[in-house]
Every structure is written in C-alpha cells, then in structure tokens.
Amino acid sequence: MDRAQRAWQERHGITNGDWEEDHHPDRPGQPTAEQLAELEREFRVINGQDPETGEDLERPRPRHDPSHLPARTHHEAHLHLDLTPCPCGGGGSEISSVAVDLDDDEIGRRYTQTCTACGASRQVVYRLPSVPYVPAGPLGFGYGDGPSRLIDAAQWLWVADRYAALVPPGARDLPPPERDRARGRLIAATAALDEVLKFVPPGASGVPEEAVWTPMGRALRERDGARLDAGRISAVRAAYLEILTDLAGRDELTGHSLGDPAAALAAYREIEAALRADQGRWYRLESATRQWARRHRIDDRDWTEDGWSGDDRRRPSAEQAWEMVREARQIAGRP
User: Fold this and answer.
1) Which residues pair with 89 in a beta bridge?
2) Per the domain annotation, does 118 fall within a domain?
3) Does 172 share its domain with 234?
4) 19-71: pLDDT as tens digits
5) CA distance from start to end of the chain
6) Are residues 241 and 162 in the same domain?
C-alpha cells in the first residue's frame, strides 16, 4: 500500500500528508476529494475488494497443472503406477522417486519407472497432501475419508484380491518371518477393501456406477459386479480381520492376541488402575499417553472396556494400542 500511495502522490504532485476529514483545502499540495477517492479505489483493489463498492471479491485459486496427478499417499502413487501399464502392455521395474516443488507452491513427487518389456522410461509427477500422512493402522493407501481420484472402486477390489491370494492356507503355523509377511499382505488387502467402501455413499447398498471409470475397472465390474455390494465387502473385511487377529501372535504376559485392540485396552486399564496410588508414575503414564496419542494422531478418547467405541477413523490400531501397553509396563516397572 505504501508503494501505491507514493506513486499516487507523485502522480498528482501531492506533498501534504497531514490529512484530516476536512482535507485542509487551504494547505499546499492537499489532495482533492476526487483524488482521495481514487486512492481509496486503489487500496480496495490491493485488498481484493471491488474498487467501487468495497465488497470482498473471491480471489482466484491457483490452477493446478492437470499433469500432476492427485495422490493421497506414496502408497497410492506406487500402486497407481503399477496399475497403469506401459503403452506396449509391459510392466514396470522398480520405482524411484524424488521430491519436487510444484508451480503453485505445493509439494509433489516425481516417480520414474522403466518398462521391463520395451525398455521405455516414464516419469509421472504426483501432487501429494501438504499435511504429512499418518495412517490409523500399519498401512493406509488414502488420506481421510474421501475416495481415490486415481484408482477406481473395482480396481481397489482387484488389489485386495491380489494381496489376499498371497496369504497361504494355515498361515498361523508358518515360521514367524513368513507369518509376519503373510499378515502384512492381509493388512494390505484389508486396507484396499477400506478404499472400496469409501466410494459407497451413506445409506447406499453398493458402489455407484460413477465410481468405476477405468477400462480395467469396467471389465471387472462387468465380469462380477455383485462383488461390489457393500455388505459383501464388509463381510470379507470382517473375515480378514479375524484372520489378522489370529496371525498377530500372543502377548506373553496376558496370552491375549496382539491383533486385538480391546485386549490391549484391558491390559492398559489394569496398569492404569495399579498406578493410581503412585502419583509420580501416574503422571508419567498420563504424559506418555498424551505423547503417544499425538504421535499417532489418535483423537478417539471414547475408550470402553470393549474397545474404542464409535466410528472414528483415528482410533488406535492393535499395533498402536499394544505399543502403549509396552510403554505403560516400562513406567510400571513390569517386564
């Protein structure tokens, strides 16, 4: 504004800056009412207002480069590349990436992949959320409750199938490293089903037509569209969660499943009750719990004996809940 005012003064030869409501018309270099009105209009433009009425104008939003694809997480960007084959039909090699600054001051990442069939290299820039993503569980493809804009609902179902197919029967009896690998694949399958359900509108029974837009997705829907029923997807997801609980292993002190967040809550409550008489350790536990909640961005504090109530997506996962139990045990001096 100072620069605009100086330019205005020079333009009109105004030297008297002692301006009051009566404008001091008898002083040299005093602006006229018309000149003051001109300056006011310039100030309004600078402030994003209509120059005549002074009403606020909607500022134009920066235009995003359409070539920058909107990925919600790095996981989603990698998966989208894998689901988008080379024009020759071949698959890609390992993906490398580097952070880039986009023209509109947002953050992005450039991914590079080479086709294993024809040797062609491709680069894709994805726009990423400005807020660092912390998944509610051990794996998350998407940020928040909104559905993907890159991968359609039927593709997510296909992804879930592929991950689940990699889990062998009787995975509970596998050696620990292989069991953990199987569990990780089933976690990914469950996360992919969560992405399918994000496309289902409240009160709807299944995935709407517009949620399947890719050629791959349309082919999958035409072949077996009944699998996009919300109830069926939820039932499969519940079955996966039961298997995950079984694969998680057992807590040595309680014998409870490490895949059961309600069991972790019960163990935490038992330690919490025991420390109430020890003020020093009690305060340490409260502080550790607050830090743990901030670290994992957990905002669902409606904890009951049966677990975390409500449908809040920021409740802790089983892994996060048992992490807090381990910290509580250290404070309590337990093994």
Assistant:
1) none
2) yes
3) yes
4) 554 444 555 566 777 777 787 777 676 666 777 777 766 544 434 455 688 88
5) 66
6) yes
The residue whose two tokens read 């998966």 is: 79
170 and 112 in one domain?
Answer: no
243 and 278 share a domain? no
What is the C-alpha to C-alpha distance for residues 287 and 291, in angstroms, rounded to an integer?
6
Q: Which amino acid is at 188?
A: A
Query: What is the spatial distance between Cα 319 and Cα 257, in angstroms, rounded to a whole number?
Result: 11
121-127 vs 69-70, strand pairing mode:
parallel
pLDDT tens-place string over residues 224-236: 999 999 999 999 9
Could you tell me the CA-to-CA distances from 42 to 21, 29, 97, 115, 226 in Å, in that order? 19, 20, 46, 56, 62
Residues comprising the chain, all counted: 335
CB atoms within 10 A of CB 67: 8
Provide the residue range defining the domain that includes 228. 153-247
Against a cut of 0.85, is the pTM above it?
Answer: no
Number of domains the chain is built from: 4
Instruction: Judge residue 160's burial from the number of C-beta atoms within 10 Å of its C-beta, 0-12 exposed, 13-18 middle, 19 or more buried.
Output: buried
